[in-house]
Write a structure and sequence with these properties.
The chain is an alpha+beta fold. Helix content is 48%, strand content 22%. Among the domains are: 104 residues, PAS domain (Beta-Lactamase, 2-Layer Sandwich), CATH 3.30.450.20; 160 residues, Alpha-Beta Plaits (2-Layer Sandwich); 253 residues, TIM Barrel. The chain contains 34 helices and 33 strands. The structure holds ligand LFPHGCPZ. Ligand LFPHGCPZ binds next to β26, α24, β28 and β30. One of its GO terms (cellular component) is membrane.
Length: 947
Amino acid sequence: MAEPAADPLIDSPPAPPPDPRPDPVLRRLLRSLPLPAAVPILALIAGVGVSVLALVQSDRLLRNEEEHRFALRVEELHSKLADRVRVYEQVAQAAASLAMTFPDLRWTEWNRFVEALDVPRRYPGIISIAYARAVTAGQAGDLVASMRAAGLPGFRIWPETAGTERVVNVFAAPADEANARALGFDMMSEAARRSAIERARDSGQPAATRAITLKIDEASGAKPAFILYQATYRGDPLPPSPEARRAAFTGVVLTPVRIGPLVDGLTDELRPDAGIEIFDAPLAEAEVPLYRSRRPAQGDDGQEGGQEGGQEGGQVSVTRELPVGGRVWTVRYQNLPDTLLTAHDWVPGAVLVGGLALSIALSLILRMMLATHSRALELAGEMTASLRLQEAERRQLFTQAPLGIALVGPDGLVADCNPSFAAAAGLPREALIGTDVRLRFGDQAAVFALEAALQGESGKLESDQPLLLGGRRSHFSLHFQPVTADGELKFVVVFAEDIGEKRRAEQHIQYLAHFDALTGLPNRVLLYDRIAQALREARRDGSKLAVLFIDLDRFKVINDSLGHSFGDEVLRSVARRLQAGLRESDTVGRLGGDEFLIVARRVTEPGDAARVAEKVVAHLASPFTVGGQNFVVTPSIGISLYPDDADDPEGLIRCADIAMYHAKEQGRNGFRFVTREMGAKSRERMDLEGSLRRAIREGELFLVYQPQVDTLTGRIVGLEALIRWRHPEEGTVLPGRFLPVAEETGLVLAMGDWVLFEACAQIRRWRTRFNLSVPVAINVSGAQFRDGHLPAKVARALDANGLSGPELEIEVTESSLIDDVEAAAETLAALKRRGVLIALDDFGTGYSSLSYLHRLPIDKLKIDRSFIHDLSTGASNTSVPRAIVGLGRSLGLSVIAEGVETQEQLQLLRDLSCESYQGYLFSRPIPVEEVERMLGRLDAREAVPVG
Ligand SMILES: Nc1nc2c(ncn2[C@@H]2O[C@H](COP(=O)(O)O[C@H]3[C@@H](O)[C@H](n4cnc5c(=O)[nH]c(N)nc54)O[C@@H]3COP(=O)(O)O)[C@@H](O)[C@H]2O)c(=O)[nH]1
């Protein structure tokens, strides 16, 4: 078996677009990454982290720099403070030197000396420079006396309970009131002072008290201060040993110093945001500050625990020790945290903001890049999927297409075909592939078409005759489509549709359109065609043509009594017999129902047609056996001739039809030729039909109304609508003239519809204008009544005009009901359900008036005018009207007499208690305008209500 050729549909699709995806390694890497959304977030987090680190780092650097600067300033300040203390010690020493040089120095000289020092300006914090003389208890009196003698009469030593060794304040400069108060104070009486004095005495060096409150401040409150003592000796300014110093000890220079002023001047040199604390203790013992600058350091008030410096909670502190008069002070310099970063404090913030901004920007850029990348990947994926889908769809289309598709290569060999093509060809697909399809076509036209397609010409072919495609014969529709690329034929696509079924259906439809389904004979359409054809032939040959209209006698009885299928079988048997007795050139067809037609060609004289008719009679004469029953069917035949009676198919058929009726009238089972009179009548009828069609179309019909009146009161109890034709040439034409033609042609249905809708519209108008409350009757023909749509049409007309039903009365004739009483009863019941009134017209003229009446929902009986006419002829035959009135009364029906022309007739009707009448006596049928005048004149209260 040949290898299936490569599928050109698959091989030849447009080359897939280049794979837009990145190379595999990168792809794997990208796939291993978290979702594209995560990468920018991670970048952002990293960026924020780095920014925060940068912030911290820059902050730290700035702080370090600030600390360093602060430390330098502190060193500078501390050395100034130490210098100042040293200077103060030197002042004390200088004063001590003075006292030792001039042991008999008087207080005035002391004062002068101190004033010369300009203490307040040059030595802030020093309250005074005083001198206290050391005396024993025994020498105290002398001291007091000498002091008094020196101009201080109030001088006394205090407190008086002092010990044996006293150091008494004798000079205090400047000489102000406060210093004066301190004179005479025995320094040894107070422990802190005594201790410092003893250190000063024994060491010969300046000695400071611990922080104390000066006597001069005791009254005003604590102001931290200390007193710096410098001992004086007799003889040697500094005896060599403590014992020698004690022995030579003469007193002390005392310099009380307030710590605040001492330090304030210096701290002002610090930045105002810095603080200073001074503790009167070494670093390890510093507890309660002796001094705190105006802007003390924030945070705890405690010591730094021996630290040389540090930073806590953003606060920088530097601690130094300061020797003061033999004591060790601790000085803590502090800077406020919020003031550390000053000139460059925006830098960390800027670093953070910049870092964050960069991180966000980086994240956004990454996000965009990744989104673009992932969208590109997505698009590439979508494109690939779409191409695959297209490919799959194309393949599916090819394999599942109900249309046969074959691909024929330039060599004429089948490259591929789908299952439908294989099925159409009646061969397996594998058997077809590789074969030369031209050898398989059983039709030369198909071969030519394919060869033309192989030359690049597309073509279509629908075989009229069954065509052999492969191994199977049917009707095919073939379409050859060459497919080229770069001007070169790649293959020819052959589309093959098996249209055999369609052809058969078309043929069947064609058959049904021209042949009678029941008998297989030509139907009305084909008969017309055959007559037209025969007429052309007859005109050409100058021959005659006969049309025989055959109607089966009493076939209705057979059909109704034995059933329709039985009737159908009879019709088929009749058709066979009619065919059997005819020449080949003649045509027999069925018009419908029990009507057949024979078209006899090449008739030279009427006798030829008569013989055909006789043959028909003869052939049908022998009994038929259907369903085991024997019976005889006889025909009535009307014959028309061309050119004698008519020269077109319609005319010939119509004339033959009329002649057939005459044949029936003359006793059936025979035939009649068209007579001159019949022909004339037929032509007139045809003219009339044409005019009537136009009348309906052009709106030439109109209604007149005849009042119906109460026999006793004379009140109008109803109106009957009667149709008229306003003929353009003949004026008003009465229905008696055109109704029969309308009924024959079926035009009566369209006409009846118009009457129904026009009457309802008129009722609506009158109800609106005149408050009309009596019913309006319309006449309904037998055809209308039987066509099955009357109740629906009536309902539509009522609905369209907003009428409930009893405003309309429908007059049906007895003859309309009599054919099928059951169907009639159903139609009437449907009408009654919609509420209309029913009147039985021409009552009394029918077949079995009394037998069916009780089964029909009727409201009114109309006594035919022939009976009323009889009343006036003096025949005084009142029996029928009397019976009808009595019948009506017993059935509960109202009775109306029509055709009342005289008072006499009216009187008789009154005598018979007939309720109402209509006739020329009261009014002829009158046009709308006259009705309206009449309604306008009438008192509405006289009108009898509907129902
Ligand atoms: N299917 C429809 N049939 C209709 C319609 N309109 C009328 N007809 C029927 O046509 C027949 C003739 O009708 P018309 O010529 O209108 O005659 C009617 C009256 O004019 C006539 N009549 C009334 N009073 C008198 C009278 O005193 N004397 C006298 N000689 N004739 C009179 O009677 C006809 C009404 O008859 P009827 O309908 O039976 O009440 C006739 O059969 C109409 O029914 C239509 O729209 N559709």
